[in-house]
């Protein structure tokens, strides 16, 4: 394993953060050999991913010692050194950068638009040649992306490490949730076995959900370039990029994280990154549904929030999922499920303000339009 350190732009004299990436197997130039990229805790207060990375690292160390790693596996065990150091009044702020207010998982560059014109003369009738040309171009564009701030240099570093990979796994979590995944619709066929190994109860599908999250910055160039050039040059969706939501923020326990790491290794074995017998694919626990059918549970009033249903339960439209209690009037406001679906995530705070979204139900019908991700 090779450990590499990537310096971020210094935010103040005498201070400079670094991002650490661990490279297992055989690193190859961009676009040359199979590559898998896994990062943990881009939202720095979402810790399950870091514990899974800890267990993944132990397994990869052992597998590499046995000579069983094929291609290159890059593990970034802590993807956000900026967010990890942000505290306000003893509270950890890991989702938004305190200087700009920007979400760490948004605003990655649209690389398809950047490389499109330059690659055209290099494309031909050989599909795998085209894939190599595009991977090289994406890597060069990600590495050359302008960065004036520490946050932009973090985004540039993460994208340049990942954008030429065949598989990109971004390990996050929700507040309180069951295991679920986000991926772009063209990635679903390749994502399906990952969902089965991990025991995901739902995978939320969208194509360009808005605001350029990290996973889509890696998967989007392929379907966008296929749309632009597909009639003239053969292309395929050459990157499976998935946001893995490892349940809730407090689900940071060895046994669960060890099992999650084992399931990720199972998937990497299926995909040929680890040699050996492929573990049998378990029956899927869930299915894929449109992200546009994932409906928020909103409270119209403020008060003490208490849930009457658990995450992971199937619910019907109109069913009461939570109560909001006004301690002065003693009024109880019932929060009802907006649709039939899977109640897969809910907030972990128990005081709600008026208008707050306190849960999510994944229905099967696309009902929303516009930007599909939350803040
Ligand atoms: Zn997250």
Could you please describe the fold and organization of this structure?
It is a single chain. The protein is α+β, with helices and mostly antiparallel strands and 375 residues long. The chain folds into 2 domains: 2-285, 3-Layer(aba) Sandwich (Aminopeptidase); 291-362, OB fold (Dihydrolipoamide Acetyltransferase, E2P). 27% of the residues lie in helices and 27% in strands. It has 7 helices and 20 strands. The chain has helices at 48-65, 111-119, 127-143, 150-162, 188-198, 214-229, 254-270, and strands at 2-7, 18-25, 35-40, 72-76, 87-88, 91-92, 167-174, 176-177, 180-184, 202-206, 240-248, 287-290, 294-298, 303-307, 313-315, 320-325, 332-336, 341-346, 351-352, 357-362. The strands form 4 sheets. Strands 1-2-4-3-7-11-9-10-12 form a 9-stranded mixed β-sheet, sandwiched between helices. Strands 8, 13, 15, 18 and 20 form a 5-stranded antiparallel β-sheet that branches. Strand 9, helix 5 and strand 10 (202-206) form a beta-alpha-beta unit. Helix 5 (188-198) packs antiparallel against helix 7. The longest helix has 18 residues, at 48-65. The chain is globular and about 70 Å long. The chain binds zinc ion. Zinc ion binds next to loops.
